[in-house]
Amino acid sequence: MLEGLVSPENLSLSSMDMNVLERLKWLQQQQQQVVSRTSDNSPELLQILQFHGSNNDELLQSTFSHFQMLGSGFGPNPNMGFGPSHEAMDGCISRTSSFQMDPVDTMGVMLKNSEENRTISSKNKRKSEVKRREEERTEKKIKVEAETESNMKGKSSMSNTEASSDTSKETSKGASEIHKLDYIHVRSRRSQATDRHSLAERARREKISKKMKYLQDIVPGCKKVTGQAGMLDEIINYVQSLQTQIEFLSMKLAFLNPELELSVEDLYVKQLQDYFTNLPVVIASKPSIMVDVPLFPLDQQGSLDLSVINLSQTTSTEAPSASWETQSRSLYNTSSLGFHY
Amino acid sequence: MASADKPINTDVPEKDVFALHFLQSLSNLRRQNTFNSPEKTNDRVKKIKKAAYVSMARAAGGTNRLWSRALLRRAAKENNKVVRLPRRKKRVTCLRRRRSNRRDPVEEEEAERLRNLVPGGGGMETSKLMEETAHYIKCLSMQVKVMQCLVDGLAPK
């Protein structure tokens, strides 16, 4: 869009039968202006606009000074870039002889650009040095292109006048696209790290590691292990041990009370709740009674008393409810004694 | 992916809830009168174990948790009952096609082992599996505590 301004300017210049030398001089002037002046140029632009408005009908008889004014109006815009792309230059060459160019149209473009200048000027103060370098580069370009233009002048005198205003817009669009492309190109270099898949993968890993940390807090003895594989191994071992513990305990229950004299009706639920809430949190797997039973294989975590089972069988056949009450009483006694479970 | 900041919720109910559920299931076992017939102790152990797991699943999550759902479903299958659990709104997508080769093979193998351990872990994503495992571990330890208490209480001196 910035080259859009340059293109009608070039157009006007080339429409005048200027020498190449004159053009080069003018370009140098422009550069000096760019370097010296600040970006506050809106009143000048307005003056030029008024000038154009008054000379709306006399555009055909427009003199060289008129165009120089136009050029000076364009000159102080530092953010022009002054790098007319090849497309823009082509557009210029095609319209070298367009004298009947609609001035209102160009004025509209200029107005827009002046508005943009105000916003962009603050940003461009930082980039002024970079712009100067670019201008140095583009100056060379312009020199080469001016030479080619002087060669092309004879051919381009037949171009269409009506399409000039439309093509100026198109060239401005093309220029803006080029600018956008530049911007995207800069981002595309960064986009290797911000790829969608790698982002998703990273998020997933973060999620998993967060949950692994949470699991580390739950599983005892997991904090010493480093590495996810070791942690997972520890977790698996813990789950397996818990499952075997449940199996073992259910086995114990089956042996302890084979007739299953438990029933909820017999239990005093509140007392049971009290009992369970009074329990210490830590499980101590130490059994209360240590009787060695060589026949029973599962004696790693506790011991089973087969004689006790027989006893309980006999007692349960005699008076089940009474036996349960005595058991519960014994339960309470153990809890009050601070028995470690 | 959007719920990355959601806190992990593995709240487990109190001990007495587990105890009540377990005692209820034991009394149900007794009512079925299968224990009066001369049975092998192996069957009895199996039944008590199953009762323990099912009561744990009921006490902990019901149908809200994936592992408890899987446990209840398995138990219902063993009973040859067609039990329709209420359908969950969000289904976990199948994991098989997602797995790629670039991940750590050892870690993946460990995760596979964990999947076999946790009920219903076959179709879970890894992060979901971790969450379910955390809840499952909590419930298992709670159940172990309850059963230990019962055993210690029932064992006469």
Automatic annotation (TrEMBL), chain A:
Look up keyword Kinase and say if it applies: no
Q: What SMART domains does the record point to?
A: HLH
PROSITE patterns xrefs: BHLH
Q: Where in the cell is it found?
A: Nucleus
For whether the record's keyword set contains Isomerase, the answer is no
- Region: Disordered; residue ranges are 111-180
According to the entry, every stretch annotated as the BHLH domain falls at 192-242
Gene3D superfamilies according to UniProt: Helix-loop-helix DNA-binding domain
One function term, GO molecular function aspect: DNA-binding transcription factor activity
Q: Which GO terms describe its cellular component?
A: nucleus
Spans of biased composition, class Polar residues?
153-166
Q: Which UniProt keywords apply?
A: DNA-binding, Nucleus, Transcription, Transcription regulation
Pfam families (UniProt xref):
HLH
Q: Where is the signal peptide?
A: none
Q: What is this protein called?
A: BHLH domain-containing protein
**Organism annotation:** Brassica oleracea var. oleracea
Its taxonomic path starts at: Eukaryota, Viridiplantae, Streptophyta, Embryophyta, Tracheophyta
From TrEMBL, chain B:
Domain called IBH1-like N-terminal: residue spans? 18-78
Tell where it localizes: Nucleus
GO BP, one example? regulation of DNA-templated transcription
- CDD domains in the record, alphabetically? bHLH_AtIBH1_like
GO CC, sorted alphabetically, is: nucleus
Give the keywords, sorted. Nucleus, Transcription, Transcription regulation
Name the predominant localization. Answer: nucleus
Q: Which top-level group of life is the source organism from? A: Eukaryota
**Protein name (record):** IBH1-like N-terminal domain-containing protein
Q: What is the protein's species of origin? A: Brassica oleracea var. oleracea
